[in-house]
Structures are given as structure tokens and as C-alpha cells.
Amino acid sequence: MNAMQNAFNAVGCILLLGSVGAGASLLGLLRDEHLPLLSNLVIKVALPCMIVNNVLGQYTPESLAKNLPALAAALLSVLLTLLLALSFFFGKYGSLWIDRLYLKNHSILSFPDAVGSRARYRVKLLTLLFFLTGIRLFFVSQGIILVLSLALCGLLLLIIATDFEQYCIFNDMIIPLAAGGVLCCALFLVRIC
Questions:
Q1: For the packed helices 68-104 and 143-166, what is the interaxial angle rounded to 10 degrees?
Q2: Cα 139 from Cα 71, distance rounded (Å)
Q3: Helix/strand/coil percent split, the chain, to 5
Q4: First-to-final CA distance of the chain
Q5: CA 96 to CA 90: how far, in whole Å?
Q6: How big is the CA angle at 173 (ends 163 and 131), to the nearest 5 degrees?
Q7: In degrees rounded to 5, what are phi and psi of residue 57?
Q8: For every one of its 193 residues, what pLDDT tens digit does the chain have, with 9 covering 90 and above?
């Protein structure tokens, strides 16, 4: 009976939200321009909150302590999955940014006729190197320092890629790297003092 009640509580909240939305729509309180916003709120805010509440509501501190290795493994797999997704995003869009810089600054390239052939493995290598760097950074930093370190290491990887491919480094990459370095130093000094 307890499992049935938990299932009803989980599904009942979703049905209640749907019923309130349908009732508000039938009463004319919702217009067509409100629907995308409400849909985003339900899908991106309410539903994840309900899922977390229903999952965490079933566990006591004792059961969590007993299942700590499984919980740690699940958390680690989620973090690695997020890092892998971020690595694919970085590899694809970082490579697109490099291609745009090459088009914009075509006159300074060392090998302007060999841009495509010299960059054939760039997306895969950037993805792999960012993923490996991210794994290392997870073990040595946390919080805002982790986020800044990932961003700065990503910029550094892009600079290394352009240096290997065309023997040139762009100001559009150096300026954000320098600004991020100054910000990292400031955060580090705040932590020390």
C-alpha cells in the first residue's frame, strides 16, 4: 500500500498541475502567448522539483548512509556525463570559433590553403583533451574556481590548437584568458586573506 501511495503522490502532483492549467485555460485566464512561458516553467522548474522531492522524500538519513557507495557512484556518473556533454559542446563550438577566427584573419595564417587538412582531428582532440582536463580539475578544485579553471583551460586548449595548426595566436583568445586569469588570482587572494 505504501508503494501505491508514493506512486499516487508522484503522479497526483502532475495531474493536479495539468488540471489547474486546463481549468485556467477553459475559464479564459490563459492566452496563447502565455502558453510557452507556462510550458517552460512546468517542464524546467516544477517537474524537476517534484522529481527531486519524490526521490528524496523516500529516503531517511539512515538509508542514505547505508547506501552511500551507491549514491557516490551515481553522483560520480552524473558528473562525468555532464562533463562529457560539456566536452562535446566545447569541442564542436570551440572548433567553430577557431574557424571563424581563421576566416576573419585569413591574411595572417601561416598555412591559409591547408586550413581544412590541418584541422581534421581538431574537434575530437579538443573534446578528449577538455574531458581529461575536466576530470583532473574535479579532483583539485571546486565551486567557482572549478568553473573558472574549466573555462581558462578551454581557452588555453583553443590557443594551443591554433598555435599547432597555423602557428598563430589570436588576440580574441588572449584577452579573455588574461581577464579570467586576473579574476582567478583575485578569487585566490580573497580566499587566502
A1: 40
A2: 18
A3: 85, 0, 15
A4: 57
A5: 10
A6: 75
A7: -70, -20
A8: 566 676 666 677 667 767 777 777 778 777 778 778 877 777 777 777 777 776 666 667 777 677 778 778 878 888 888 899 999 999 999 999 999 999 998 888 888 888 888 888 999 999 999 999 999 998 888 888 888 889 989 999 999 999 988 888 888 888 888 888 888 888 778 777 6
Q: Residue 13's closest CA among 38, 42, 40?
A: 42
Helix (H) or strand (E) holding 108: none
Distances (CA, A) of 84 to 81, 87, 97, 122, 172: 5, 5, 20, 16, 26
DSSP 167: S
pTM exceeds 0.90: no
> 173, 162 in Cβ contact below 8 A?
yes
- Cell 481549468 -> residue: 23
